[in-house]
Write a structure and sequence with these properties.
homodimer, mainly alpha, 16 helices, globular
Chain lengths: 402, 402
């Protein structure tokens, strides 16, 4: 009669683990997100096994809750982001996005080729080095109330461009790997579709809201404006996947559109409990995906160290070079802000495993690299931001709590 | 690279359908929940097919979101319920719970036996008539800001007792159906376990919170008290399933415990966005479970009408008789408040189908009956409550919106 006992237990354990991990991290003066990821690693299949591998594959309830969590997180980040501010940093963000993709892709493929892979496979491996995970950085920026800084805008803008490029690159390496040739006009169409989607939604949506947002209060539901923007968030998240983009890009755009409404402040407050409930699932699930058994050899650990170093250094150089026009201090923050790979590297690794490009060990190493970049970045970023807090002009905004 | 496109589409469609359905219902002066259930029926497998039958079986993402939605709903209802108030209505609630189970069980089994089933099967069918779905009634009471009325306390208390008795009854009919005999000492143990769980958690938990709730603010997380009570909610929801109770009983107790804290008002506000996001999944999924094809004959419709009439009348009589000490007006509200069956009837029907007690048509009829009782009740309840608003003393509380 009373089903769903097991899944309730899992939800409970994941949620509590996230809270405990986050609390410990914060007591150690680390960002809470590091603790949540570490908690996921601890309760995941390779240590405690409270989450089984079957529970975190695509399409399971835990995976969907995690996806919903990161979607809402990027929606909330978008809510604190104005299109006007994004426009101001547009050029720098574009350069950071492009250079920040090219440098890791170049260094990654050279390294993979140097390790004996042919060029087609090397490019595939390199694709796993490319895409920044906006989720991790966004969460750190949010935890530190730093979303209004210019560096944050650049990072977020670059992450959007980054995702478009990563999608194209992945399309290229997958078709190369499949033995096909690259169809340039096809790729151009995909590129135009993605860019067009972002431009039309970003520009048109904010325009509509700025013109009139009173209609959001029309429905009789007491949750009225919130429901409509949540529907927008889910709708654009889904739509952006149709254009080959990550769901979080659509969610971010939805947030940015909603930030133009006069109910923006209420929406921000109402979104916080949603993040409190759902984002822990994302970070714990992310952490639980690393397979420590495959890494239990000196050779594997050494390879992991090299891969992680390349991933960090290459992305940092790309971001730093791209944003040096803002000064060395900002460029350093932006460079590190682009470092986390998180779920995107994991997705590439999964594709590579399925396509037979990677063996289990390279798969585990790439997943671990994604996690390591995600865990190393937040403390550095937190330290850099605090250090420059007094040096640069920060637009203060009302912050945590509700 | 970008997975989860299909499930995102489903989430979007379910969420939007709930909003559209709820809005239409409210424009027609009906409670929003009726529209949400109707929307589920419309987009479900038997009409539009935007939700497939595979998407709503136990353990799928949609099912888990629905479960989470109703858990949070009962948690929120618990947040507005004080143990002290429950104690005041304890006796009446107990009688309503017991009589409200016995009358439908008796009438249901007589009807089933009259239709040619042997007594063992008849008792199984009758079990589907028994359990009130607290979710539907709670939502209506909440929509109408009526949770502080004495009738609401009686209904909620009776729903808890109802669930304990329904669990016992189901245990009996399942073992009778399996050809076994009823083990009285075993049943007594189950009963003691369930009652003990409710008593210990309800009494002990509120005691602890009343004694000191300052520690809820101790964690460094900005979402601090909310996270802890959400963890409590998920934990007790899971724990109550271990005692054979519905997850919502544990969630309700968690809310009642949290209502004793000095952060109760903040928690209430923070819970609202969670309900706005997640409860629509519960009501839409509930609505989508009805199979209209099986009902497409005059005979089936007639049987449905009879079954629904028995379900409504028997529960109303039980609730009314049990609470007549509060006066006819209150007894009428309580009687109707106990009518909705919702998901519990569906669970019994599913068990019956699996055990071979029901064929597909009786299954469809029992599911449809559960839905009909859930859809018929809210308008009646809303009308009764509004009518008596001026007549009886209502403790006004700050209501909708945020």
């Amino acid at each position: 009669m009373h089903h769903a006992s097991d899944i309730l237990f899992t939800l409970f354990v994941v949620f509590v683990a996230a809270q405990v991990g986050g609390e410990i991290a914060q007591r150690l003066k680390l960002p809470g997100v590091v603790g949540e990821i570490a908690a996921g690693c601890a309760i995941g299949p390779s240590l405690l096994g409270w989450i089984t591998p079957e529970q975190i594959v695509t399409g399971t309830p835990l995976d969907v809750l995690a996806e919903l969590g990161v979607i809402l997180l990027l929606f909330a980040v978008g809510l604190e982001t104005r299109l006007e501010d994004m426009k101001k940093v547009g050029k720098v963000a574009f350069v950071v996005g492009v250079v920040g993709v090219l440098v890791p892709f170049g260094m990654g493929s050279v390294w993979a080729h140097g390790n004996g892979l042919d060029w087609d496979r090397s490019l595939f491996v390199a694709a796993a080095f490319v895409a920044t995970s906006a989720g991790i950085t966004a969460r750190v920026l949010q935890e530190l109330n730093a979303l209004q800084r210019i560096e944050s805008k650049v990072i977020l803008g670059a992450a959007v461009i980054d995702d478009v490029l990563a999608m194209l690159l992945l399309g290229i390496v997958v078709s190369l790997q499949g033995g096909g040739s690259v169809n340039a006009s096809n790729l151009l169409l995909v590129l135009l579709g993605a860019v067009g989607f972002i431009a039309v939604i970003g520009w048109g949506g904010t325009r509509v809201m700025r013109w009139n947002s009173a209609w959001l209060d029309k429905p009789l539901s007491p949750h009225s404006p919130l429901m409509i923007v949540l529907a927008l968030c889910l709708g654009l998240a889904w739509l952006s996947t149709l254009f080959g983009l990550a769901a979080i890009i659509g969610a971010f755009l939805a947030g940015m559109i909603a930030s133009e409404t006069r109910q923006q402040h209420t929406l921000e407050k109402q979104t916080r409990p949603l993040l409190a409930l759902l984002t822990p699932f994302f970070f714990v699930v992310t952490g639980s995906k690393v397979d420590l058994h495959e890494l239990a050899s000196a050779e594997a650990l050494w390879m992991l160290a090299v891969v992680t170093a390349i991933a960090i250094v290459s992305k940092f150089i790309g971001g730093w070079l791209g944003s040096i026009s803002l000064g060395a201090r900002s460029a350093t923050i932006i460079g590190f802000g682009m470092v986390p790979r998180g779920e995107v590297g994991i997705v590439v690794a999964t594709l590579g495993l399925a396509a037979g490009v990677f063996d289990n060990r390279i798969y585990a190493i790439i997943v671990a690299m994604s996690l390591l970049t995600a865990m190393v970045t937040p403390p550095i970023l937190a330290w850099l931001l605090k250090r420059s807090d007094h040096a640069t002009g920060v637009i203060e905004r009302s912050g945590t709590g509700s």
